[in-house]
């Protein structure tokens, strides 16, 4: 006898909850297929030859059902729910530090402004050696272990023991856990005297307020042009995408609409007076910009409000609803499709799930990232027109940029990739800052001086190469490849030193020199090209 599902009686709880929900909606006898599934589960419970892991089998059954629907309906286990929701909720409960595990030691990289650790005087460079009296040094600590030990219930306390360079004694702290913000705006600064730049990494509950705060700050510095960077932004909340768009679109313009079999058409329109409805605007996208990022870029493009610069976006036009299950786990079920103002459905086909999963690599191999002419041509049935200028745009596979910027890989050698894969950039800069923090800050008391004058000189690079050699003996120094990647390696090291000393904004202010899409956008928005653009055809 072949048994395809094995499960114990106690796992009926989660599945029974699903059946109860279905029965509540239908208010009739369960469908034959549900009765059949229940019958099989009963036989397995009563007759299967061995003990089984009921929890894993239940989760596998749920995952299998969802995989048959579409690529974005997913199951999230109870253990993973909190982490999955942090970006969406815009906060988590913890002690308020950015940390890194360096040489099996838990190091504080920075404290979150206003958080419990900062309020107690914990400092960057501190090493946490014990948590609740138990050593966390030299035990093979993992990031997941740290999160488990330091995160907890709001208002609960945790005792940590800290080793600090300036103190011979171990310092004891009792930290009261609090809500810690997870910022979706990584940085906002003036890239030139006229052009402001905002890097948005997700669309969470706090995003709109963060965007408004950033716009207010940039306007106070004299911003007349704005670049919104949505590269690698995988999306988030639909209503947050609507609110962000509302900052750029005037009157009652349609931003996005959604509809599904059980969801009537819902229109989301601009309504509030936005903070940037008239100034020049460019949105940056690439192949990893998805979902809510595509709602924003699609609406901006459809209303001819600004230009999209970069590469074709991911192509996700499906709306998921989070549904909590009785055991604390969650499913995110696709309930509707969303459409841009011109009527575009930008979801790429997913009839063949294997091809869908390999789409990124397929696009890379056919040269789409480096050559605009390699972008797959779409049929006329997917052709739409923008609302004001009546430019041709396409649905069926992401948002096409108005200005295409190829991926530049000329400086990325195998040696550079090996350094990155080995974590050597990050580990070295942490070690360097730990050793030289006071000296560097004495020479460069503020970031502007550092940015202008800090150089990865011969002594610095020798220290880096010595560090790499000790960390990974089999990674041989490649002189020819180093010459090709030298500028990129030094820029990355400088940017990461800045991040360890100051923060994420300072990292981007240096590393964005290599951001080809941003550099192209700056040239476009500050020249007459901006007013002449928007007419490219694909």
Properties at a glance:
538 residues; alpha+beta; six-stranded mixed β-sheet; 19 helices; disordered N terminus
CATH superfamily of the largest domain: 2-enoyl-CoA Hydratase, Chain A, domain 1
| Count of DSSP H/I helices | 19
SSE class: alpha+beta
CATH topology of the largest domain: 2-enoyl-CoA Hydratase, Chain A, domain 1
Average pLDDT = 89
Overall tally of domains? 4
Radius of gyration: 26 Å
Quick recap:
The chain is α+β, with helices and mostly antiparallel strands and 538 residues long.
Give a written overview of the molecule.
The chain has helices spanning 12-26, 32-47, 54-67, 78-89, 116-120, 143-150, 207-220, 238-246, 292-302, 353-357, 359-365, 414-421, 424-443, 447-453, 458-471, 479-501, 504-511, 516-525, 529-532, and strands spanning 74-76, 91-94, 97-102, 105-111, 127-131, 134-135, 157-163, 171-176, 178-181, 185-190, 195-200, 225-229, 254-260, 263-269, 280-285, 307-310, 318-324, 330-339, 383-385, 392-394, 403-404. A hairpin with a 7-residue loop joins strand 7 and strand 8. Mean pLDDT is 89; it is low at 1-19. It is an alpha+beta fold and 538 residues long. The protein has 4 domains: 9-68, no CATH class; 91-181, Pdz3 Domain (Roll), CATH 2.30.42; 185-407, 2-enoyl-CoA Hydratase, Chain A, domain 1; 414-517, no CATH class. Strands 3, 4, 5, 6, 7 and 8 form a 6-stranded antiparallel β-sheet that branches. The chain has a 6-stranded mixed β-sheet with strand order 10-11-12-15-16-21, with helices on both faces. The termini are far apart. The longest helix has 23 residues, at 479-501.
């Amino acid at each position: 006898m072949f048994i395809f599902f094995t499960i114990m009686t106690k796992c009926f709880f989660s599945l029974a909850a699903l059946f109860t929900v279905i029965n509540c909606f239908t208010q009739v006898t369960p469908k034959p297929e549900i009765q059949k599934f229940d019958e099989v589960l009963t036989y397995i419970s009563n007759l299967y030859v061995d003990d089984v892991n009921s929890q894993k089998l239940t989760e596998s059954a749920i995952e299998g059902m969802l995989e048959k629907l579409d690529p974005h309906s997913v199951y999230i286990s109870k253990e993973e729910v909190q982490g999955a929701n942090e970006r969406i909720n815009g906060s988590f409960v913890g002690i308020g530090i950015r940390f890194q595990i360096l040489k099996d030691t838990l190091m504080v990289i920075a404290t979150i402004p206003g958080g419990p650790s900062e309020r107690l005087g914990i400092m960057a460079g501190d090493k946490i050696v014990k948590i609740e009296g138990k050593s966390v040094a030299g035990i093979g600590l993992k990031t997941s272990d740290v999160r488990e030990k330091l995160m907890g219930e709001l208002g609960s306390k945790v005792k940590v023991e800290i080793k600090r360079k300036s103190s011979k004694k171990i310092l004891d702290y009792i930290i009261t856990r609090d809500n810690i913000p997870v910022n979706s705006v990584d940085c906002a600064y003036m890239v030139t005297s006229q052009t402001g730049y905002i890097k948005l990494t997700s669309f969470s509950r706090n995003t709109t307020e963060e965007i408004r705060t950033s716009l207010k700050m940039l306007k106070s510095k004299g911003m007349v042009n704005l670049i919104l960077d949505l590269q690698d932004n995988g999306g988030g909340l639909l209503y947050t995408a609507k609110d962000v768009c509302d900052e750029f679109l005037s009157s009652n313009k349609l931003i996005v609409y959604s509809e599904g079999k059980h969801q009537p058409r819902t229109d989301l329109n601009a309504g509030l007076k936005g903070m940037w409805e008239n100034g020049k605007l460019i949105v940056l996208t690439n192949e990893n910009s998805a979902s809510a990022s595509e709602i924003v870029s699609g609406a901006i493009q459809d209303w001819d409000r600004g230009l999209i610069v970069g590469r074709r976006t991911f192509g996700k036009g499906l709306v998921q609803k989070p549904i909590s299950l009785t055991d604390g786990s969650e499913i995110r079920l696709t309930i509707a499709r969303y459409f841009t103002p011109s009527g575009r459905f930008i979801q790429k086909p997913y009839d063949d799930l294997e091809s869908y999963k390999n789409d990124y690599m397929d696009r890379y191999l056919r040269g789409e990232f480096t050559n605009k002419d390699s972008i797959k041509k779409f049929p006329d049935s997917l052709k739409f027109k923008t609302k004001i200028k009546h430019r041709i745009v396409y649905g069926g596979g992401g948002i096409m940029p108005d200005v295409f910027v190829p991926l530049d890989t000329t400086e990325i050698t195998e040696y550079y990739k090996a350094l990155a894969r080995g974590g050597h950039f990050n580990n070295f800069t942490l070690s360097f800052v730990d050793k030289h923090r006071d000296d560097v800050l004495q020479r460069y008391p503020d970031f502007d001086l550092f940015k202008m004058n800090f150089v990865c000189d011969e002594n610095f690079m020798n220290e880096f190469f010595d560090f790499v050699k000790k960390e990974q003996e089999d990674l041989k120094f490649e002189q020819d490849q180093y010459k090709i990647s030298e500028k990129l390696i030094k820029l990355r090291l400088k940017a990461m030193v800045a991040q360890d000393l100051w923060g994420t904004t300072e990292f981007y202010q240096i590393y964005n020199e290599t951001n080809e899409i941003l550099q192209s956008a700056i040239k476009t928005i500050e020249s007459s090209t901006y007013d002449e653009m928007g007419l490219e055809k694909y």
